[in-house]
């Protein structure tokens, strides 16, 4: 039971179980690699002149090295897949290193440095066997017109339509029923929430929770909310309104040719009512005329 | 003063130009209320003045009288004392003696009055929402809150000194200085708008060249959004901020109304411009003034609203009709009011006929007729044209009423509404008589005379053509039509009451004659005897025949020969009145008689109530086959008494018939519910209307689910709304609402889906809640336990759940006019009343607060009034009464009193613990002095007092010990000195011109009021006055005079008062003197200085009125119209000329 659990935990637990008795080939394989990395780190430390290191420090450096190498691998694979290949090439790796900020030119010199330590090759362990993919159903054999050297068909479940949902209910009655229930539930939940979080009034003295009423709150301008349609309704209204308006403005232009002339003679000074400057051109209405500046008082 | 108060202030300046038409003009009387008058000058000379408003306090001394008869006569006397039509006024200005000479030469006098108005209680109404921001952002506005009735009530004296009469015409120049963010809308043409020098305010200059009476002048100031009518550029609409889209939609058809009136009257709209202003907290929905109308903002609606649309259009049509008759042409005297109301109501009716169709029009006429008949039979007659001979109370033409109809200010609101209703019905009767063509010719003639007169700038005596009197109207009718309508006028105009007919018939087979018997009841209250022609329509097998019968003194029976034989021709179609021929199933009818149905006065050409007896099958035939909606409606109400399967079938058929008028079908729903209840033990099949509703409005595949809403067909929309409401009235044998009906309604609510509808469903949902309310029946109470959630009936629980959800959702997504909240509040009250949930007023109190939408408040108040009556709660009654006194909205105050009258906590005939001395005193005080700023409210209070205590002394008061004796004594003692002025007045009356000379301003024709109001208890009056804290600011009614006047003016004032020796005045005299003494310590005097007031007024800075006055006010003599003044009036050419420049 214990081992199964360990496998499930994956690589995270590798460190913690290092040194313990291992039980599976995959585990062994990984541990061997890790141990090699530790040796490498130790060698590099020695090379740099350290005589001893705390275990925790070594572990940390190992971890860093491992993730660095992993990152190079992941990145190089990405580059290669980006160019529609499946195996990374040298150039992929080089680009990766450059991308990661590593000066590639220094690598040969570093590799040929004199004081480097030679470490033993990691012990040969069997690469872990990838478990067989779960096969479901019978694989199809090639039909006659496909040569046998072509790859086999994949498992049927990968291409056969397997419905996993029920047929949507299109029965009118049920739809209406559902919509009604849903709306009612939403409304009830919403009002209950508002009632719970705010002030309430109750119709019963003994029980204030069964039929909670949101408290009536006077508003400063009560007619606004009572008369104006809600935002949603207003949108629909504006759509119809604008089409009506167009008709009206057309009529205006032909309606009153005299007004235009009169209006243009007005002094342009003062404040023009901002809201409908465009319409004003054709309408002469005293309320739309600019407000005059006060005259300098004349002496009688 | 708090910051808020500063905003409720007006400082004004009035300039009147007077052309004396009499010599010895040394006093000028004007109307003014609640204004604080700083200074009066006549031709640059300081003039002393006296301010006395007897209506501030009607009965002066603390009498224990408390009976309504006494109050009414005192109140009438007080109103008469300041009646402008009789040449009286609150403000009496003494012309300085230096100018007497000038007056004798009939030279122009100019009167300048400076006044201010501080937090007015009536007349002008300020609405200032209590939110942050500038005044404009807050949507603050102010408007003349005078409505139609207030207008006849002439409330204009409430906001500026004037001659507050419809018969005093003059031209106007108006200037209003307001904050730069505001717009001042007033009568006449806006000439220009000019910034003040500091650029923070604007002055609006208006000129009204058409002679107009002061009550037709109004003003509205606010941060209005402006909309120029796209069809008529001279028409401008104003609404409060954010409402512009609604305004655009609501006004989009106004031009059609204009076109209609101009076409039928063949007369252009008389003013050069028209303005509509929509304000909040309006006094009434519609009020018209010269070239402008003020509406309630609640009339605005969006395109999604169905039910409000026709109502708004009606209001606009009413307002516009009054522009022609009421504003442009105004009444000669109060007694002629009916003509103007009648004509404007009549042409409004023509508009209804054209726009909404003949069915709607006839339905409306029937409704109005039923209303007036019901009112008159209940309350006594409504008199259109009262004549007051000699002004004596004895000659009161309407002794059955608890108020006087001598003045508009003393009328009950309800009575005035009925008065208008009757007026337009009588106009229709005249039309029936002389034909519509002649009728319109008369109107056209009146209008063209008036418009000719209005353009006569230099001849003000011509202006009397713009005033319409009963006499002139009748004369015009006889000139145009050549017909004598005297009897008609005598019957319906000079006389009150309606006719009550009872009809029955028998068919004489041998003679083939219909024996019709028509009896009348003319003895009970509100009825009168009718003698004259009456039309009877008989539908026989061979067709429909009209018969004109003559109703005479003693003949009851009328024989009408029948055309058809009773033998029926099989398969023959039956011709109807309109020429249509229909197949009928004649099996139901009496085999011996050819009569299908009979109608008495089918055209409603008599103001009557007909109770006619005919067999049930005849009513059913009438309902099915008579094409007149009025006949159908009559048949439906008659069928309520015949719960038979045949009636059921007839009603169901009508319900289904789509050609039938929708209001008839709606009425049929309710009748069907009643019949079903009466037939409950024999009823077959599903509950009434259920299968019908299912067929019409539910899905074909699943009949229990209603279709998603689509209200594009309005007829079926109204039917869909009404049917559930009527169905909910059904009861089973246990007298409960049938379970499947309740479930059906709950399903309608559940499945209601408005997502795809282009109209709002708020009214529909509100009606579904009403249906739930209707389904409620009284709870079975087990030994009076307290109502708790646990013992709630299962059905009621479902209902309550719906109501809770609806009410809560309304907080998040409010419906138009909060219709759903209104319905929910009614439902909750009904649940309380039926004992399902504990009776508790607190919820309603919170909804009745200021700050809720007015409809919601009224619904909550209605519930509270009901609670007060059912629970006999004095606490709630007090709460309501204090709201009547303190609420900021006039309409709400008026409505509370109206609701209390309709549903009184107790009446004069019932005993109640609520009826006690304190309540009597409270109401009395309110009527007496508390409501002096609002005529309507005062009359409402009088109504309530009448409803609660009757005309005589309330029974709950202790017997007046010696009070009565004392009073009698006082009366005698006081009578002697006061008789003199009364006689004096009587003598002077004949020569109206001399009134001005002697200045005997007030007459108290009623000896009772003389006695009681007399100097009976002067110490009390003194004491009361002395109680007034010296430091308190002066009340609006008090006098503030120019300070430098004091030394000299003091003495003259004393002299002045002596000839004003009326009983009220003696009291006022004392007040006045105390005021003068108090004045040094009164802080109010500081506000005299001009600069000071400037800093305080943010709204209307200066109201300057220049009146070019035709003549000096004279008591108008109705019998000799305008004669005394004509010819003598002169004009000031340079002024008029200047205007033309």
Automatic annotation (TrEMBL), chain A:
Do you know which Pfam families this protein is assigned to? Bromo_TP (PF07524), TAF8_C (PF10406)
UniProt region (Disordered), positions on chain: 238-300
Q: Which residues form the Bromodomain associated domain?
A: 29-106
What InterPro entries does the entry give? BTP, Histone-fold, TAF8, TFIID_su8_C
UniProt keywords, alphabetically: Nucleus, Transcription, Transcription regulation
- A molecular-function term among this protein's GO annotations: protein heterodimerization activity
| Chain intervals with Basic residues compositional bias | 290-300
Give a yes or no for keyword Zinc-finger in this entry.
Answer: no
Entry superkingdom = Eukaryota
Its cellular-component GO annotations read:
transcription factor TFIID complex
Q: Where is the composition biased (Acidic residues)?
A: 238-257
Family listed:
Belongs to the TAF8 family.
Descriptive protein name: Transcription initiation factor TFIID subunit 8
Tell me which species this is from.
Answer: Oreochromis aureus (Israeli tilapia)
Automatic annotation (TrEMBL), chain B:
Using the record's annotation, list all stretches that form the Transcription initiation factor TFIID subunit 2 Ig-like domain: 496-614
Give the record's family classification. Belongs to the TAF2 family.
Checking CDD domains in the record gives: M1_like_TAF2
What InterPro entries does the record tag this protein with? Aminopeptidase_N-like_N_sf, ARM-type_fold, Ig-like_TAF2, Peptidase_M4/M1_CTD_sf, TAF2, TPR_TAF2_C
SUPFAM superfamilies membership: ARM repeat (SSF48371), Leukotriene A4 hydrolase N-terminal domain (SSF63737), Metalloproteases ('zincins'), catalytic domain (SSF55486)
**Alphabetically ordered keywords of this record:** Nucleus, Transcription, Transcription regulation
Picking any one GO biological process from the record gives: RNA polymerase II preinitiation complex assembly
Which region ranges are annotated with the description Disordered?
A: 1018-1050, 1116-1141
Give its localization: Nucleus
Tell me which species this is from. Answer: Oreochromis niloticus
Q: What is this protein called?
A: Transcription initiation factor TFIID subunit 2
Q: Which GO terms describe its molecular function?
A: chromatin binding; RNA polymerase II general transcription initiation factor activity; transcription cis-regulatory region binding
Q: Which Gene3D superfamilies match?
A: Neutral Protease Domain 2, tricorn interacting facor f3 domain
Q: Which GO cellular component term is one of those annotated?
A: transcription factor TFIID complex
Keyword presence, Iron: no
Q: Where is the Transcription initiation factor TFIID subunit 2 TPR repeats domain?
A: 616-974
